[in-house]
């Protein structure tokens, strides 16, 4: 959870603070109001969903932890946003791995053939 402190002049500081996305207003020892955000949210009022800016592709699932978000990729995908297919074994001779009909396959350069472009 993350907290962001906001100054208020009220005798009930949390009455003036609207924490969003189920964040909770808490008071510090000196009476300052702050929002305690649930995992995956940040900002002064917990208004930012960290996974909203992390559009995982190809069935990837965004997980937010602390101050960062990351995609968990299903096989055969990898990359920051699960944008790259992984061919196993790797494509040879400059071939590229593509995801076609739910399978990772090598797209071979002209003059090369075979499952792995060898």
Automatic annotation (TrEMBL):
Protein name: EGF-like domain-containing protein
Gene Ontology MF terms in the entry: calcium ion binding
PANTHER family (UniProt xref): CRUMBS FAMILY MEMBER
Organism of provenance: Parascaris univalens
Pfam families associated with the record: EGF (PF00008), hEGF (PF12661)
Keyword vocabulary terms for this entry: Disulfide bond, EGF-like domain, Glycoprotein, Repeat, Signal
Alphabetized SMART domains for the sequence: EGF, EGF_CA
Assigned GO CC terms: membrane
Single GO biological process annotation from the record: positive regulation of cell differentiation
């Amino acid at each position: 959870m993350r907290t962001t402190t906001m100054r208020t002049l009220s005798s009930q500081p949390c009455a003036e603070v609207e924490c969003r996305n189920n964040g909770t207003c808490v008071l510090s020892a000196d009476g300052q109001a702050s929002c305690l955000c649930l995992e995956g949210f940040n900002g002064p009022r917990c208004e930012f969903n960290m996974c909203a800016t992390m559009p995982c592709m190809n069935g990837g699932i965004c997980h937010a932890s602390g101050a960062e978000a990351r995609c968990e990729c299903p096989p055969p995908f990898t990359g920051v946003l699960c944008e790259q297919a992984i061919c196993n074994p790797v494509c040879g001779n400059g071939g590229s791995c593509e995801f076609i009909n739910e399978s990772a396959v090598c797209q071979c350069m002209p003059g090369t053939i075979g499952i792995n472009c060898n």
